[in-house]
Amino acid sequence: MPRIEKLAEHDITEQRSRFYxxxxxxxxxxxxxxxxxxxxxxxxxxxxxxxxxxxxxENGQLVEQARDDGEVGRPGMKLLELLRGRAFxxxxxxxxxxxxx
Length: 101
Description:
Layout: E1 8-14, E2 17-25, H1 29-42, E3 48-56, E4 62-67, H2 75-85, E5 91-100
Antiparallel strand pairs: 1-2, 2-5, 3-4, 3-5
């Protein structure tokens, strides 16, 4: 399975809302949670912190998680589907929506 080897980030403004996205290398769920904590501090005004990850646990079992953070349309599952579609592992995708500008 392919991996995300290095951090990739992008932001865009669409209809007066600012969106931030990141593809994050992460080998464990703890690494994913640390990265989420950093992003929540960095983008503390963001209304939604949606994310998904595919990592291995201490027994080598695949762990998949997705969170929508109150956003409609199930964005966390859509992010997880992107990871599954490319068979990524040891990876997390994070999107943030920071509201009107």
